[in-house]
Amino acid sequence: MNLIGLGATGCKLVEQFRQYGEYKIFKIDFGLKGLKKNGIFCFPKVSTVEECESKFPSMNNFFKNAAGKTVLFTSGTDMLCAATLRVLEVINNRAEITVVYIRPDTVLADPSTKLVDKAAFNIFQQYARSGVFENLYLISEEKLFDAVGDVAVADFETSAAGLIASVFHIINVMNNSQPVYDNYNKRSDIARISTVGMSSVEENVENLLFPLDFCNEKSYYYLIPKKILETDHKLMQKILTQVKDKIKKDKIKIGFGVYETEYEEPYVYVTCSSSIIQGIEL
Question: What share of the chain is helix, strand, coil (3-state, %, to 5)?
Fold first, then answer.
């Protein structure tokens, strides 16, 4: 799988995936040091959002070996987010594209950031709904603060990037692993606007990284230690009851899988998807 980090935030995010050793990483930002053959592209300095497109350099050679499943990470806090579509044009004909967009806190954002976010937030959703993107994952900076919890100010960006990378890596691994038991549904072709989050086996709570409205479907990934799988005879009923309660409450399609893990404690991850454009007041 190819991972593209566009802008400072995106680059920090994809760098967190190196520890897993199974991703091809591309980084694009201003002032980067390194070689293009090693996945480093130093974008020429620009002064305005418009110049990100008007002065967009050729990236054909940079992406010449990029094909197949590709995930691009970017944030509205970075000017280079405005170049996302130009970057993806280079590989669009040979890649299955997913975009992960970190939406800034619009209350605190400066006018330039608000401009970038307004365009990205709306255009990305339109591209996802039309099928140009396989999926669009939205992450709220405000929800990210809540999920990271109490950390030193100097450590927040690294902790946030690590959390996002961990969640997406685990979900990717589970999607390519054989579950002990599953009851997944076929994914809707029109529910392509999504988010991710964490839940719990013991408590009927979940923390999504974006407040997604009009959710059409959810998938839960139950990561259970081997010892618990072998000894807890009430676990299956507990999971089934939890899933059924969510179906009754939310009145949506829900699928789930149970996986053996080497973790010492159970963990639950969730994806939530919608077919409705977010941020529109009805």
Answer: 40, 30, 35
